[in-house]
Amino acid sequence: MTQRRMPSGQGPSRRAAAGRPTPSRTRNTGPIRVPSSRRTPGSSDGGAAAKRTDAPRHRALTGRATVLIAVFVALALAYTYPLRVYLEQESQIAEMERAKADQQAKIAATAKELEKWNDPEYQRIQARENFFYVRPGETPLLVYYDAAGAARDAEEKAPAAAPDRWYDTLWSSVQAANAEPAD
């Protein structure tokens, strides 16, 4: 009778069937004689055979694990480009929202300025400041700034004398003390 394979590609399940021995991790390769020089003092002289066993070997990577890792790597590589595009679009959306907020602030400031210009008193003040309008009966006084004249006036004044340096003052005081007659 043929046993059916599992969908995962494995062989038959590893459950112990009735009447079948389960394989052990030890392998009998035959009797081994221990030399008499290595025998312990309490052992018999008959040269009893020792059983040779193999240590259990762990596979580093099974075929199924290799395929699973390859699938994970392929999925990770497949998702990197859409994830990068998504993050790029999120940053663009955030930048556009900041620009939108800035534009709304500018619109609000312009609307506030427009509201000021609807006031006739504000219009009169602006006309007086910008266009030098005066009311009937007022005498306008205009002050012109003459940069060349200001520079010319500054040159005519004598510069202030520079203060003496401290060591010049000290030396002159030493000379004055030396020049005094001793009584």
Automatic annotation (TrEMBL):
<protein>
    <submittedName>
        <fullName>Septum formation initiator family protein</fullName>
    </submittedName>
</protein>
<feature type="transmembrane region" description="Helical">
    <location>
        <begin position="61"/>
        <end position="81"/>
    </location>
</feature>
<dbReference type="InterPro" id="IPR007060">
    <property type="entry name" value="FtsL/DivIC"/>
</dbReference>
<dbReference type="Pfam" id="PF04977">
    <property type="entry name" value="DivIC"/>
</dbReference>
<keyword id="KW-0472">Membrane</keyword>
<keyword id="KW-1133">Transmembrane helix</keyword>
<keyword id="KW-0812">Transmembrane</keyword>
<keyword id="KW-0175">Coiled coil</keyword>
<feature type="region of interest" description="Disordered">
    <location>
        <begin position="1"/>
        <end position="57"/>
    </location>
</feature>
<feature type="coiled-coil region">
    <location>
        <begin position="86"/>
        <end position="113"/>
    </location>
</feature>
